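Repro:
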Amino acid sequence: MLRRLLVLALAAQPVFARAELPDLGEVSRQYFSDQEEQTLGRAILRDIYADPRYLDDPVAETYLNQLGYKLVSVSSRNQREFVFFVVDDPSINAFALPGGSVGVHTGLLLAAQSESELASVIAHEIAHVTQDHIARMVAAQSQSTWPTLAALALALLASRSNPNVAGAAIASTQAYSIQNQLAFTRDFEREADRLGYDMLTRAGFDPHAMSAFFERLQRANRFYDSSAPAYLRTHPLTSERIADMEARSESSAYRQVPDSLDFQLIRARLRARENSPADALAAARASVLDKRYSSEIAARYGLVIALVRARQFGEAETEAQKLLAARTGNAAIQLLAAQVAAAAGNTALALQRYQAGIKAAPGYRPLQYGYIEALLAAGRSADALTQTNAQLMQSANDRRLWLLAARAHAQLGHRLLSHRAQAEATALAGNLVAAIEQISLGIKAGDGSFYDQSAAEARRREWQAQEKAQRKD
């Protein structure tokens, strides 16, 4: 009963409001099993993908996952799967969620003064997941949490008629036990600091970055009245923690770690999408003309994005050619050059640039997405489907590929297979109910082969069984 109430209570809250809670996280699975955490994690991801603040940017998400898994690979407990995603929010924050999801706000990506600082925060969040802090919190507070969870369950019922009332109920029940939660959370924060520091060092980042970032946050906090930076509200910061970080870094030799070009490009990319197209273009132009940058390549990359937003395709093409002439070999730059050509209506050049980029970086997924979309735009549906199926053979759990497959099948008039692909994408996003509805529509279309029909029916039965098990939990 306790476990069910916990799942219901957390599921009742708006997804990004959950990030406002203290991070929880393995010593005991008596009250919150691994299976229950995974189920809750999938439900959270479903809400994340549906939330308008989720930044659906394959380039930014790919970078974050590459950085995250670089840290995970050197963790002492790296058997878990992780999902790293970006939240379009200017506040400085990052958070770990049940099931191995780690969210990073755009504000943090822009506030970090080095890639090592960004890596230090992500390593800290990874440690919250690998140490099972959520399950440990539930086990430690199994008795005192009962009234809180009961009230939260009532808030869930209230939310069906009045979400505002539910939000107030949730807030009051959180306040009821916040003191005890923070006591445990500080212990977890110190543990996440220690393990995060180890990951940071082993992955080759600057070990001094963690203390530098948190100390800067603490200094900034003095200028706030009642509203501290979001990261400080969700991660209680004490002088003891900062002193411990500094002691660890002082014992390490100074190591100058240059930022990767990808880190610089992502920051320029995020800046170029801020404000209106005219304002973004003015800021990007000024950055290049005044040489106010740490990387000229990144500054010009941001300028190209701003030019495309302002629909100044001629100048964007000129600047894109300059980036290509620099011969950095960077896949994100090759992708942008192809997107500039496509935006300007030069389909042949766009396809040529996509093909060149894929040849140089076949594993860079955003190039694959762009190439398939360009094929679809050119009316080459069969080629797009062939390319998509080849990628799905390697990455069957890529929901973006399944969405592209659905479009290709739809253009080819394959109703069953289009609904089936859409259902696969929906299931990967955590919404089994909608996936079952989609695949049922495909089965009713009745235009597939006997094999396709049988496979779709088997898949529907599999999802129905999973959805029934989730409802039972």
